[in-house]
Amino acid sequence: xxxxxxxxxxxxxxxxxxxxxxxxxxxxxxxxxxxxxxxxxxxxxxxxxxxxxxxxxxxxxxxxxxxxxxxxxxxxxxxxxxxxxxxxxxxxxxxxxxxxxxxxxxxxxxxxxxxxxxxxxxxxxxxxxxxxxxxxxxxxxxxxxxxxxxxxxxxxxxxxxxxxxxxxxxxxxxxxxxxxxxxxxxxxxxxxxxxxxxxxxxxxxxxxxxxxxxxxxxxxxxxxxxxxxxxxxxxxxxxxxxxxxxxxxxxxxxxxxxxxxxxxxxxxxxxxxxxxxxxxxxxxxxxxxxxxxxxxxxxxxxxxxxxxxxxxxxxxxxxxxxxxxxxxxxxxxxxxxxxxxxxx
Length: 344
Prior knowledge:
Number of strands: 7
Order of helices and strands: HHHHHHHEHHEEHEEEHE
Helix content: 55-70%
Strand order of the largest sheet: 2-3-1-6-7
Largest sheet: 5 strands, mixed
Structural class: alpha+beta
Shape: elongated
Number of domains: 2
Number of helices: 11
Strand content: 5-15%
């Protein structure tokens, strides 16, 4: 999941780069048209052809990034090779001084958009074309052309690496903020606010699929006395241990949260209500294994409220019913389970 989010983030960054490149290319084309009108340069005409080709390529690349990502690598390889060949033939047979300026941007953009493997391949093809074109020219001109292509490719690779690092940091910050807003810092269970959000979704799902839903209201017995007698540090350890028991006792799709203090809640969708009772009993039995002090083990009281299929009930009503069942469990001696009934 983490990698998927990170890849989505990198994809969005690349899409923004492509959109910026499209705008920049349009500006270059408009500027080139004005210059062409004023100067009537034959070489500039070829340059504008490259600009239009690049604009079309960028537009198709943007579409593939957003809709058909699996076809993008082959498309990029094909288009870069076509562009390299266009520059090669225009430079070779027209000796257009403008055409060669395309080679460094080709290498750089390939590193950013097509990633390292394809970018390196395109850079080598670009260098090969440049060598074929300029191997007979003055050595320092050759060196400046070849080095500019290599430098552009390295610059593109650096941009790609920085984008990746930024995406990692951004993703980590986003996940940390999400965790802070949804999780209880001590127990690492969901907090009250997020429990309300997720449990409301569960209830709506249960209504649509005509499934029963259960809400468990759980309270650690005599927890205030434990805090007063053994200190808050041990109280925190007990809360953490209990949270782990809850997580082990429940299934991956059940929702569990610390509602505050020693109060916890669980939201369960299950066609078989006996499964809910089994889970509650499992919690009860596992909690008894937590030792507060020698010959003094922990216990909890659990209140359960059920909603029937097609019953029009909301989360607040279920919580009230589960709390009433919890209070009855406490009145009857604690360390037990009580189920809400209408006659309560």
